[in-house]
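To: structure desk
From: M.T.
Subject: fold request, one chain
Message: Could you run this one when you get a chance? Sequence is below, nothing fancy, just the single chain.
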Amino acid sequence: MSTNRVAVVESQLDLFLSQAQPAAKVLGAEDCLRPGSRLTAGVAFDLFADMALSRALDVAARELKKTNRSFYTISSAGHEVNVVLGSLLRPTDPCFLHYRSGALMMARSRHSPDFDPALETMLGVCASSDDLTSGGRHKVWGSKELWVPPQTSTIASHLPKAVGAAFGIGRAKRMGIESGVPASTVVCCTFGDASFNHATAQTGLNSSRYAGRHGRPAPVLWVCEDNGIGISTATPKGWIRDSIDGRSDMPYIEAAGELDEIYEAAAVAIATCRRRRGPVFLHMKTVRLWGHAGSDIETGYRELSEIEKNEARDPLLAAARLLISTGAATPMQLTEIVDQARRRAKEAGEDAASRPKLTSREDVMKSLAPWDEAQVRYAATAPIEPAERKEIFGTHLPEKATTPARRTLAAMINATLQDELIKSPETVLFGEDVGRKGGVYGVTSGLQEHFGPRRCFDTVLDETSILGISQGLALMGLLPMPEIQYLAYLHNAIDQLRGEACSLQFFSNDQFRNPMVVRIQGFGYQKGFGGHFHNDPSIGALREIPGLILAVPARGDDAVKMLRGAVAAAKTCGRIVVMVEPIALYHERDLYETGDGGWLSDYPLADGSEDCALLPGEVGVYHPYHRDVLIVSYGNGLRMSLRAAKHLEEEHGLRARVLDLRWLNPLPFDAIRLHAEECCGVLVADECRASGAGIADAVISNLAENDYRYPLRSVRSADTYVPLGPAADLVLMSEEDIIEGALSAAGRR
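Reply: Done. Structure tokens follow.
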């Protein structure tokens, strides 16, 4: 039935063109289509050609699907009026596009004569490795040259990053950072009426308005392509308008009617956005033809009469009527355009279907997580001269080479952030309460005072916004270092890492990068403050994200070196690095006894030595010559494991080697196996919940699969939320658990 409806719509247009009569007066290319309209006949003619090509490509994709030569059939059919945006926007206006924005992309492609939109579209549809955008990984609208970062845009998860890009235009200019776009740039972001209801969409809309209220320009043009239905669920009449219209901080403009009226509305919306340097909402009325995708049988939830009513609103048919009636084109000219578009689409489809596909796992993953260790190490160990610090701090330096101070983990991170802000002028640090307050735990104290609110600032209290803004800022040439206040707060926003940030290099064939270092305060064992939101022992959701680097420092000196490695990985390879910092260790001073200062450390100066930075995979080893048992741990578990190892040797004569993983994604399996082979048993001390929320399962399975011949044991926290107060000690992994587990692994229990 779906295929039959395609034929019905196509024949409807053909029938009209064959029967239409040309207008008595023929317009010149520079003549306005109608009195009062700014759309000229020549531009309208080109718009129709782009609409026809977009439609023909949708048909070709479905035809190839019949013989299993194409793999994507979500079409732009019925949405072709978005073509006006492709014509009106500048090629330097970044576009974050909805998957039905095909005609927009056809029109935008006119800015690049070397870009063949027909072939590129069909290469994506056929998942060919020759596809310039994604390299055969997905069908996405995208082009580096045309400033269209590819989006999957399934649930409007691209809206928050559009805000970040818009916000980053002015921020980069004021910081003297080259963003690649003019100061007058606006960001266009398109999405559907059903996606409008998603929490992530509302987050984007809200944060764009919030930025304006705080005097931070965010010129983003929101374009809701409203076809009135989401798969099978109808959007209530007036829902979009009633939800947006009347907001003083975000003008609402409706684009409906004839093509020239839609063109005019879009032109006004773009000009308003460019002038106001703030968000504008363009409500574009469209129609969805042929169901949601090729596999969607519309008659299962729509009456045939309703389907036919929609088909009568075909925007190509409406545009053809307008052009012919005004004298902008003759029926014969439009027939030729349609025929040419169909031939071009068919030829491009046949060509694309014959092109090579990705043929190996290595090819598929090539753009996922680029890595150049030599470059990363060079960047991580680059020295910072005292004179550079003096420019920021005057005579006061955060650290002095002559009198290095022994500091806590929190103080060490603070000093490193100062160094990185000096070292990399494109770095910006932001999040909830990080600016004026200096963070809940004082980790960012003094940074806004020293570097100013352009480089260290507070955000809306919303993690999705924070991570979305990070991506947009990165696309504008900045290096974001956002802070998530608590690990538990991340989970409502984690798709901004999983579905968006970490997928950009993968889906763009590494043409676009959004590097960032995300600092998260997490884990348990806080004294006098807690509950499940502030003592969350769960990193499983982070570890499963493809391409993400996960760092967990325990000691202050390690945190300094790891943060340098993290920033270098982001800068040189475009990587997304998450550093989870154990809150309970922030201000810890002692290791074995009160007053011993065993958890304080000297600040490793950025002196250019190889030892001043740590890269992913570089582990920490304590008691390297002990062989009775290997205790593998990280974070809070490291301190507990070292205390447990002392007890084991003094009370049981058991000599334990302790391995600090430091990097939890990817896990340093080679180092684990190397040390495990030198010991007579392995215990994994994992402070996360037992049900795979941490690393114990992965470590033990890797050792088992590699035929480790000695006992394997693990101790973990209980599968529960962490309660408030002393009851937390009943469910979190303890030193006693580690002692008993080590004895078992060594065959003493």
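Reply (cont.): The chain has three domains: 2-354, 404-585, 620-745. Let me know if you need anything else for the meeting.
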